[in-house]
Amino acid sequence: MMTDTNCNLASLDEYVPTPENPWNVSKIHHLYRRIGFGASKSEVIAALSQNPATLIDTLIQDALTLLPTPLPIWSTWNRDQFEAAEDANPDNDTGFYRREWKKQMIADLTQNKVRERMTLFWSNHFVTEDDTYRSPAYQTQYYNLLQLNALGNFRDFVYAIGTSNAMLVYLNGDENIRDRPNENYARELYELFTLGVDNGYTEDDIQETAKALTGYVDTNDIAWGDILFNPAQFSNETKTIFGQTGNWTYDDVIRILFEQRGDLVANFICSKLYTYFVSPSCNDAIVAQMAQTFITNNYNIAPVLTQLFKSQHFFDQNAIGSIIKSPCDILICFYNELGFPLSTIDVNDFIWDSSRILGQDVLNPIDVEGWQGDEDWISPDLLIGRWESARFTISRGWEENQQQFRDFIIGLPIGTAADGNLADTLSGSEVDIVVRAIVDYFFPRGIEDDVIFNEILGVFKDIDAFPPSYYEPGATEPNIWRLSRPEVSEQFLALLNFIVDIPEFQLK
Questions:
Q1: What is the pLDDT of residue 6?
Q2: pLDDT of residue 3
Q3: What angle do CA 314, 315, 320 make, to 5 degrees?
Q4: In whole angstroms, what is the distance from residue 317 CA to residue 145 CA?
Q5: Domain ranges of the chain
Q6: Count of CA atoms in the C-beta half-sphere (13 A) of 253
Q7: Contact 336, 110 (CB under 8 A)
Q8: How many of the other CB atoms lie within 10 Å of CB of 477?
Q9: Mean pLDDT of the chain
Q10: Which positions ≥6 away from 429 have C-beta within 8 Å?
Q11: Going by C-beta distance under 8 Å and a sequence separation of 6 or more, which residues neighbour residue 221?
Q12: Computed from CA positions of residues 472, 476, 480, 484, in that sequence, does the dihedral angle turn out positive or negative?
């Protein structure tokens, strides 16, 4: 875990808006970009009149009660059944089913909020790679497990993931037998999933744990069938794990882990939640308080998230715009925040394929340690693709309905609820108010540099339909710029294509 080097000194006390620290467009986008994948204009406007703590309670509760995505009929198929389906329709090979479920995950990420944000988070924590286990059925079962446990009890989650078909194959648990214990899953259980590298365990603990995990190897000779426990392949000998000695089973491993190392588990998981949701630079004091909340609530995840998202620390100015958007973030947030229907393309296919090309193939992280994120997302070869993906969204929206570009600006919120929304009667002398509202909407901290803001303002004003005289004080009809004019769509198009190249657009 990183040491405390960030400048965010705010506490975990609940954030309560004040005139000096108001609830505004910036904070609403900050919340929705971190807790989910962006908010539509109507959601932002609605949130302005809500109490932030009440809004967060609602978002968390919605996630807790949201039913998992219904499993497809092929979620229980074995390899013979997939091959039979391919024989009937050669286009439907196993790769087809795996791609379809990745697109389903993208649809869920786009439509839902907290539950799907946490599902993506856990897919990069309890990592499996579908390119390794290859079974579409295992893939859907694994995804279902992530959704079911996304905000639930972490101890139960750890238990369930270890005997899932996808994980057993991915980390060789299905090869772990009494005469040849395989240490792969035991090592990652501690190193990556619960404790962290070299933190509270020894090589002896790993070796002894591997013996306690033996036996989950029986598929009844059915390829891609359920992997079941075979008592004959279990190591029936005394094991010593974290100083506790007995003929331990899988159940005992999880019990002993949380009894003997529960404080380390809590600190490790909360540090990962912190660096994912707040800042890449960890604040040890805040993490320690989160960990205590985790332990006090019997390792339930939702109370920790509720405490964090409601806090002054989360809404501190130093937290806003401190994280680089992942490919899923930049694609889905921009799509949701614009709210333009793209009926001429398969949006889920576009977002999945683009995020894959940009380095984030959902359900298939790069290795067992997962995507490291942050600066890894913006290497020079990936940055151009990020720009072009955003521009594709813009161009498709333009091809479908140019008028929606002007309609988007009209009614755009300004700052706080008391500041109101952009009215279509705004005139040329007020054009900077319009552009300021737009950049505040799309940039986490707006644009603080006057030089950059004036460049953006210049791009917005520089179209042939509006000579400079249209913006001068005293300009009159018909030679006056107004937000209601249809040519404003072209201005917003030019502005969007310009701002996606600005570095701050990559932040959330």
A1: 76
A2: 37
A3: 95
A4: 35
A5: 58-309, 403-506
A6: 25
A7: yes
A8: 7
A9: 97
A10: 471, 472, 473, 475
A11: none
A12: positive
Structure confidence at residue 4 as a pLDDT band (50, 70, 90): very low
Residue by residue, DSSP assigns 316-368 as: STTTTT-SBPPHHIIIIIHHHHH----TTS-HHHHHHHHHHHTT--TT--SST
Average pLDDT of 394-407? 98
The answer to whether 358 and 389 have CB atoms below 8 angstroms apart is yes
Q: How many CB atoms lie within 10 A of CB 391?
A: 14
Which token pair is 326? Answer: 């992942």
pLDDT (tens digit, 9 = 90+) per residue, 73-83? Answer: 999 999 999 99
Residue type, 29: H
Report pTM: 0.97
In the numeric block, the tokens 């929304």 are attached to: 421
Question: What does the block give as tokens for 204?
Answer: 């002896």
Q: Region 167-181: what's the mean pLDDT?
A: 98
| Exposure letters 293-317 (e unless 16+ CB within 10 A, then b) | bbbeeebbbbbbbbbbbbbbbbbbe
Which residues on neighbouring strands pair with residue 177, listed in sequence order? 180
How does residue 179 score in pLDDT terms, banded at 50, 70 and 90?
very high
Tokens 């875990």 — which residue?
1
As a whole number of angstroms, the distance between CA 139 and CA 141 comes to 5
Q: Where are the beta strands (DSSP E) in 347-464?
A: none
Contact 240, 222 (CB under 8 A): no
pLDDT digits (tens, 9 = 90+) for 14-72: 999 999 999 999 999 999 999 999 999 999 999 999 999 999 999 999 999 999 999 99
| Residues with Cβ within 8 Å of residue 381, at least 6 apart in sequence | none
246 has which bridge partners?
239
SS (H, E, C) 137-156: HHHHHHHHHHHHHCCCEHHH
3-state secondary structure 110-132: HHCCHHHHHHHHHHCCCCCCHHH
3-class secondary-structure state, position 162: helix
Amino acid in position 418: A
Is the preceding omega at residue 478 within 30 degrees of 0, hence cis?
yes
Residue with tokens 């505004």: 24
pLDDT recorded at residue 1: 33
DSSP codes of every residue in 236-295: -S-EEETTEEE---HHHHHHHHHHHHHHHHHHHHHHHHHHHHT-SS--HHHHHHHHHHHH
